[in-house]
Write the C-alpha cells for this entry.
Amino acid sequence: MKICITAQGATPDARVEERFGRAPYFILMDSETGTFEAIANPFADGAGGVGPKAAQVVIDRQAAALISGLLGGNAKAVLDAAGIAQYTFSSGGSVKDALEQFKQNALKRVA
Amino acid sequence: MKLSVASGKGGTGKSMVAANLACTLAMTGPVTLVDCDVEEPNLHLFFPAPAITRDVTVPVPVVDEPACDHCGKCGKFCQYGAITVLRDRILFFPELCHSCGGCTLVCPKNAIHEEPKRIGTLSTSAPQPGLKLITGTLDTGSPHAVSVIREAKKEAEHDPVVIYDTAPGTSCSVVETLVGCDACILVTESTPFGLHDLRLAVDVAARLSVPAGVVINRSDGKDQATLRFCTDHDLEIMMTVPFDREIAAIQSTGNLLCRKRPEWQKDFIALYVKCCTLAGVEQ
C-alpha cells in the first residue's frame, strides 16, 4: 500500500510538513517493501487553489492514504471523493516516524 | 475625465472627498460617482435616493456529465485549481474559478458550457440634479470584488465626468479601479500609518501611469513628514482639510461639507481644476 506523506525534504528522514497544498515534497512510502519515491510539489509556491491541485497529484500517484498536518476544505473534498483516507500527524517528527505511527494505528483519521 | 480617489490607509476620508467633489461639480454639470469599494460601499449614505438594482454575474463552467469522458484536460488547464477530474466524476469549486473560460476551450468533447452565477449587484440612482450614483456591492462570501468593480466602471464608461471611490489598501480592487484613470487623488492623514500607506498608494499609481496628487485630511498642522515626502516625490498637495470637530459632526450624520458649509464648494472646484491640470485634460 502506498502512503503519501507531506515532507519538508526529499527523503524519509525529512520532517513532516504540516501544510498539505504547499508542502515542498510528497514522499510516497510503500508500507510493504519500505521503498519510497519523493515528488517535488509543483504547487508549493502557487498563487491559489493549490489544495485541489496537490490532491490531484496524490490521486495520480494512486496513494491509498495521506498523512499531513492541516488540510483545507477543498483538498479534503477532492481526496474524499477519490476515496483517499487522510491522517493527521502533528507531533513534529520525520516521515519515517509518521509511517511508523501509521502502522501502529496511532494516527488520527481526519473525519 | 476619469478621476479616482484612493488612499492606502482606510478611514482617511476617500468617501468624504469623493462625495463632496461629486456633489459640488454636479451643481454645474453632469457627474457620475461610482462606489468601487464593493465590499463596503458607503456613498449611498450621503446620497439616499431610490435606486434601480440589477445582478452582476460571472460565467462559470457547467459540465455535461454524459458527454464527459474524464480525460482531465480541463483540470490540467485550470490554473486556479477550480476543477479536479477523477476517474468517474468532476469536482468543481466555484469560489476558485476566475471565469477565464479556458476549460470550455480545451474540452475535446465540448462537454463544458458556461452559465451565469450571481456575485453581487449594481445600483444606479439620481440623488440630485446632475448627479448619477453607481454603487457596486459584492455578495457576502464572494471573493470576486474585481468583477463587480469592472461592471461598475463599464456602467459609467461613456459618461463625461466620472469619479471613482476606491477600496482602501493597494490590492487588486484598487488596481482595477485605478487602471485607465486620467488622474488619482490620494487622500492621506498626517499620521505615521497614513504616510506609510501613502507611499504604497503612490507606488501603485506610478506603476499604472496614473498621475496622482495628494489631499491631506484631518490636518493638525503637523504635516511636515507628509509635506517632505510629497516634495521628494514631486506630488502636489492639492487640498488640506483641517482637523475640525464641526466637519466631523457634519460627516458623521451623513451630511456633506459642501452643502452645510457652502464656502467649501470653491475649494472642491479648485481641487477638480488641479486634477484636470494633473491629467492634462481640458475642463
